[in-house]
Amino acid sequence: MTEGEGAAAVSDRALRDRGTWAENFPPIATRRVDAGTMLLEFDPVAGLRNQYGALHGAFLSGIAEYCMGLAFLREEDPVSIVTVSLNIEFPAPGRMDRLVEGEVVVLRETGRMGFVRMTLVQDGAVILAGQGVARKVKAA
To answer: Residue 133: exposed, middle, or buried by beta-carbon count in 10 A (0-12, 13-18, 19+)?
Structure first.
């Protein structure tokens, strides 16, 4: 992953060690480029395909929601989120044999709410475009 100036790794350790479904995701490399932008990448692994051999949309939707939560995760102010809405489009199929790269951008953040835009791409082709609204809650 190419690091931008001042980029910092975002740790999802607090979200993974809870016995939840996100522990089944492949390793996701993340970097915070600035306060509002996070980059990510992962390699698809076996079991994530649909009956047509493409990356399953439900898996990609889960990644989008998971990364929406990571966008608000900060060590100095640990919060969790609950998803209020998540709108997703799949402009192209995702391939099992290609790296997936993504960007999550916080469009607006208030004390309790967050609004994000996310994109996942493979070889320059957008495979997921979405936006979401999250409600921040105290970390458990």
So the answer is: middle
Task: CATH number of the domain at 111, please.
Answer: 3.10.129.10
Element (H, E) at 6: none
pLDDT tens, 15-32? 555 556 666 678 888 898
User: Which pTM was predicted?
Assistant: 0.81
| Torsion (CA) 19, 99, 133, 62 in degrees, nearest 10 | -40
Q: Is the dihedral of CA 77, 62, 83, 40 positive or negative?
A: positive
Please tell me whether residue 125 adopts helix, strand or coil conformation: strand
Range of the structural domain that residue 60 is part of: 8-138
